[in-house]
Amino acid sequence: MNEKILAITERIKTRSKATREAYLAKIEAAKSDTVHRAGLSCGNLAHGFAACGSSEKQILRGINHSDIAIVSAYNDMLSAHQPYEKYPAIIKDAIKETGGVAQFAGGVPAMCDGVTQGQPGMDLSLMSRDVIAMSTAIGLSHNMFDGALMLGICDKIVPGLLIASMTFGHLPTVFVPAGPMPSGIPNKEKARVRQQHAKGEVGDEELLEAESASYHSAGTCTFYGTANSNQLVVEVMGLHLPGASFVPPNTPLREALTRAAAKQATRLTQQSGNYMPVGKMIDERSIVNAIVALLATGGSTNLTMHIIAFARAAGIIIDFQDFNDLSDNVPLLTRIYPNGSADINHFQHAGGMALLFKELLAAGLLHDDVETICGTGLEKYTQTPVLKDGEVVWVDGPTESGDADVIATTSTPFKPDGGLKVLKGNLGTSVLKTSSLREGSEVVRAPAVVFEDQSELQDAFQAGELEKDMVAVVRFQGPKARGMPELHKLTPPLAVLQDKGFKVALVTDGRMSGASGKVPGAIHLCPEALDGGLIAKVQTGDMITVDGLTGELTLEVSEEELNQREAAKFQVNGHHQGMGREIFGFMRRNLSTANTGACSLFDDEDIV
Q1: How far apart are CA 221 and CA 215, in angstroms?
Q2: What's the burial of 441, exposed, middle or buried (CB within 10 Å: 0-12/13-18/19+)?
Q3: Start-to-end CA span in the chain (Å)
Q4: Is residue 221 part of an annotated ligand binding site?
Q5: Measured between alpha carbons, how far is 515 from 196 in angstroms, rounded to an integer?
Q6: Which keywords appear in this protein's UniProt record, sorted alphabetically (predicted)?
């Protein structure tokens, strides 16, 4: 095992000792020595199985077989989640074969950031994660269940399900993916048309044609954004069956994997004699593995907040510095858009997760002594699933890359580090994704141009006012101000300016899309403008240094001058009204800082 990875893991264990011990004591107290429904009154239990068939009722009357909860993020507007429509029937049938019962415990909301980018609904995106966690908790609160199956894929959905899973850590839990859509037009072509549209060279019809050719069928979007980063992270933590993440939907292998996942959940319950609750299974080593794999593949920066949040739900304390220090010791092994031209299907064909596991394990970059839903250790995850006589079996995965432009080796990586840098300076602390940056663009020192909404930047771009070296400062986008919306609409105009040869960077207390990274962006800035951050005092023309090599983030204005400046005031301008935003004020006001997960759920006295 890499000594530096070990040292960081030990640092996290030491930091988390008190909260982790209290958490483990909590889930130990919540477990049952028999089926959980045995603790219900007759009236409680009658309500719990009233809608079941006679055979299911008979099973649930006894204490010998498990009742498995299904929690699903199905809706048929999200391409990634549309395949889940048929999963409950498949799961119920599979678990019936084991002698148990599966019940649909609850559905959770699932919004698509691709639909809400640049729209008022995006202000609810991050908060939807906490709503999903709470919705899942309601579904599991009936105490009927001995295990759980979580059906979710996209941006805030998997992190919300993970927070809830850790909260109900006494239950064995298996995550069930649905797979990516077939590859559409190349991602570079899509990006090119977006930039043409930003420059006014093509119209809406041409842009819609390109977007529709990219996002064109059921399944997860194929670029390596937050959705596919989620799937990779969940598999590396051992919560998926090996190789399940990127098998296409509506295929025989996909259905066989779903049936196998359902049966695997029953093998981990108290009744199986092989009890493995998810809160015990996922520990500090599992979390470090998740971060290592995210960094090795140049995954979504959104996960910097999400991993902090769901680790906290398990009593494990992670911070931005952990990401930074792990990044310094983890090489970049994949080139998947936006870090390259390939998509997730190309990654799968080049060797996929099995090959990634082999490379990381061979280099000592993953803890191999972790627990997974398949037992102890990660060797099983170097195998790949295939169908044999209608059943899924696992065979040895590839030993070398099928495309060296997509998956590299640890001896000849694409970059020596994981492509994530924490920037610090008088402006605060932020995250910079460097894995997608072209050589020479990592450092920008230029005058600030200040905006308080991404639409203002777009207007200035269209007016030709940004044809210069600059650091775009987009403030009052943080958790407490706006709910921390993604600012993906900024990518095309800033990329156009960069392609014209200007030195361009972004500083914001908001987020960027998981598919961003071409333009250096100091994002997730803490403290945010509404929380006393110095970004509220920046003025257009101030010199700012964004340095992705040294980790510097500096506003080059004297302390004397800054002390004399008044901080800008947040202008609500209707951002808290409409599209449901008015009912989320209580949550927005209670979101924590980005470097503590931007979460509204955890009070210190409640978390354990």
Answers
A1: 6
A2: middle
A3: 31
A4: yes
A5: 18
A6: 4Fe-4S, Carbohydrate metabolism, Gluconate utilization, Iron, Iron-sulfur, Lyase, Magnesium, Metal-binding
Q: What is the 3 state secondary structure string of 541-554?
A: CCEEEEECCCCEEE
How do residues 413-449 score in pLDDT, each as one tens digit?
A: 999 999 899 999 999 999 999 988 888 899 999 999 9
- Averaged pLDDT for residues 454-459: 94
| Single-letter amino acid code for the residue at 378 | L
| Residue 604 amino acid letter | D
Q: State the pLDDT at residue 515.
A: 67
> Where do the structural domains in the chain lie, given as residue ranges?
3-182+217-396, 421-596
CA–CA gap between residue 324 and residue 429 (Å, rounded): 12
182: number of Cβ within 10 Å: 13
Reported as a single tens digit per residue, the pLDDT across 8-38 is: 999 999 999 999 999 999 999 999 999 999 9
154 is in an annotated binding site: yes
Determine the residue type at 402.
G
Strand (E) positions, 404-462?
420-425, 428-433, 443-451
CATH class of the structural domain 421-596: alpha beta
Q: CA-to-CA distance for 5 and 292, rounded, in angstroms?
A: 9
Please state the rounded mean pLDDT for residues 51-69: 95
Q: Is pLDDT at 236 greater than 70 in this prediction?
A: yes
**What's the pTM value of the predicted model, to 2 decimals?**
0.95
The pLDDT score that the predictor gives to residue 607 is 47
Q: Is the peptide bond before 331 cis (omega within 30 degrees of 0)?
A: no
Dist. CA 101–CA 95, nearest whole Å: 6
Comparing CA positions, the residue from 544, 507, 528 lying closest to residue 596 is 528
Averaged over 537-555, what is the pLDDT?
97
Nearest-10 Cα torsion for 358, 232, 222, 338: -80
90 and 258 Cβ atoms separated by less than 8 Å = yes
Token pair in block for residue 456: 């203002």
Query: CA separation (Å) from 210 to 196, 216, 350?
Result: 11, 10, 26
Helices (H), 267-399: 278-281, 284-296, 302-313, 320-327, 344-350, 352-362
CA atoms within 13 A on the CB side of 26: 19
